[in-house]
Every structure is written in structure tokens, then in C-alpha cells.
Amino acid sequence: MDEGYIKAQADVMAAKLKPSGFAYINLDDGWTKGFDEHGRVAPNPDKFPGGMAALAAYVHGKGLKLGIYLTPGLRVTAWEANGTVEGTQIHVQDIADTSRTGNTAGKGTGSYHIDFTKPGSREFIQSYVHLFASWGVDYIKMDFVGPGGGRTKADCREELKVWHEAIQKSGRPIWLELSNSLSIADIADWKATSNGWRIEGDVEAYGKGGTLTRWAKVASRFNDAPKWAAFAGPGGWNDLDSLEIGNGDADGLTMEERKTVMTLWSISCSPLILGADLTKLDDGDLALLTNADVLAVDQAGHVATPVSQASPQQVWRVKNPDGSFTVALFNLGDAEAKVAAAWRDLGITGSAPVRDLWQHKDLGSYKGAYEATLAPHACELLRVGP
């Protein structure tokens, strides 16, 4: 990842995906090298010789927004350098609690907990937000947040409250996304301090098999998404992780599986964050990613849940404000199977019209139920009624 690569992604997004609503170009880990004199991570000058403000200006010039990656806490290496908190004479060692880790990353990216009872601690976070705002950053992914996943236990909830307050004070609308495998017991804190929270670990295959992901990595979301469904709504959303669709066979999924993944993310109203190389955008995948009827389901913000998960053949549904239902039929099994949506499970009596959203096609009126025969790992996405 470097300046040229990010600009190339922005060029493709602006030309091919922006009309469908895709707006953010988000850098993940790998953009930093060392720290500035105030203990904040600094851009890698070899990878980003023009600087982050210039990169943001390029992205904004395409009508898009720029996102950046960070982890909570004070990096041990920054603590060792012991710079001063911007605008103060307080040293960063003075705000650290070295008895506690600052995030769940563990060894390799070690950090200390920030003690917010100490002078300069809140100013340190405010200086970070000020720096990012001065660059033109629109989105922050905060990774290795705890309580939750990661390699070691950490509690970042107090720090996130300070980040939230600092963003509000900055006057710049910055989206704050939390990662990963957040504790569902602490959902009240995630909702109060962020715009989205990862409900699971990473979906990427990390080169295993030479693909972006594989079916087993995405199938687990079917079990976890319903547990979080009630907590999603305007201002904060359940994040199912990146959507590994865009590079054709390199996705690691069949075309039916890609459609199923896109359907689950959309009926869960998850942020649609592409994990593919857009310069290698596959035409078939592009058609999936820009299907207006499917994107409308994701953007409507009404989260579907399953009628039952007693078998691999599942029906998920949610009632819409106009009285219609969004209904997804899934065959998660490894053999062809029939999947039926019964109107009694939707509270519908008599007959109801059915429209296939993937095909933009009205299928006619059905009495009592609708049934489809689905290939392994395949789906249908429907609007039923009103």
C-alpha cells in the first residue's frame, strides 16, 4: 500500500462505484512509520511522499472521503521517545499507565493504557483528532479494541469515550468504526461512542489458497449476525467485516456464494466495505456490488433476522415501513435443497406479490407461501407484499 496505489483505488471507485453510493477510500494498517514529536503515529514518507493532507485532497477531489487506521493506547515506542503532548509541556510518559496494555493486539504492536485521570491525557487524544482533521480525514478505523477479540485482554471503553468527545469538539464529521470481535455485553458503550462495531474476527483468508476469503470464513456470520440485530440503527451499525467481492475467482467464492454474502451483508445493514483490489475489478462482481435493489435494502436500515436456524435452509425477514417484507432465502447446505417462506411467519393472510430483487423481476402473486429450489450456498432476495 502506498500513495499511488490508494490514488488508483480512488480513480476506480469514482468512475465505477461512486454512482451506487460507495464513498470512502480507507487505509488499513501499514500507512505509518515512527512517531512525531507529540507521540502520534506518523505517515511513512517513503510510501506517502506527498503527505496525508495531499492524499486526502486527491480523494476529496474525486468526490470521495478518506479513512485511516489506528489502534488505542500509547505505543511503547512512542512512550520510549517521550515527546510532549501538543500544546503542553506534559510528556507522553506522564499520561501512561504502564501496568496495563492499551489494546488487544498484544506483542509486536505493544502499547500502554492511557490514564485519563492524568493531566494531558485528554489533550493527547484531542491533538490526534486535530491532526487527522487538519489532513482531511473522514473516517477512523480503531482496531484491537477491547473488551473483545485480539491477542490479549484490554479495556478501551474509557478511551473511546474521549475519542468520541474529541471528534464532537473538532467540528469535523468523522466516522469512527471499531474492530474487532467486540464484546456484545458492552454494546451500550459501542453505541454511545462509535458509528459501527465489528461483530467478528477477520474475514480475510490472508493468502491461504491464494484467495481473498473462503466460504467457511463468511458462513460463521450467519450464526452471529442475529445476536446483534437489535442493536443496529441510525448512528451505529453492526459491521460484518469487509466484503471480499470484486476480483472474480480470486475472491475465493463461487458466484452463488458471492451473491449470498452480499445478501447477508445487505439484509444485516452492514457497512459495505470492499476488501478487493479495485484496479482488478471483475465485471461480474461489479454487477453484484452495484445492484440498486440490493443496495437499497442495505441502505434502508431495517435489519432482518431468521425465522429459524434449526436447519441450513433458512428464511430471514424484516417488515418495512410500507407494510412489505424483505425476505431472504438461504441454502447454507452443501446439496441442492428447497427453501420456503410461509406467509404465516410474516403475518400475511391470503396472497401476496413477490419480487426478485436480484433479478429486478416481479414473480407474481403467491398464496400461503413461496418456495424455491436453491443450489448449495445459494440464495434469493425478495420483496413480499404489501
- Can you tell me the overall shape? elongated
Largest sheet: 6 strands, parallel
- What's the tally of helices? 11
The CATH superfamily label of the largest domain reads Aldolase class I
What fold name goes in the CATH topology slot of the largest domain?
TIM Barrel
**Mean of residue pLDDT?**
97
Quaternary organisation: single chain
Q: How many domains make up the 3D coordinates?
A: 2
Question: Distance N terminus to C terminus?
Answer: 48 Å
CATH class of the largest domain: Alpha Beta
Radius of gyration: 22 Å
**Fraction in beta strands:** 15-25%
Task: Provide the helix percentage.
Answer: 25-40%
Give the spatial strand order of the biggest sheet.
1-4-8-9-10-11
Quick overview:
With 386 residues, the chain is an alpha/beta fold. The chain has eleven helices and 19 strands. It has two domains: 302 residues, Aldolase class I (TIM Barrel), CATH 3.20.20.70; 79 residues, Immunoglobulin-like, CATH 2.60.40.
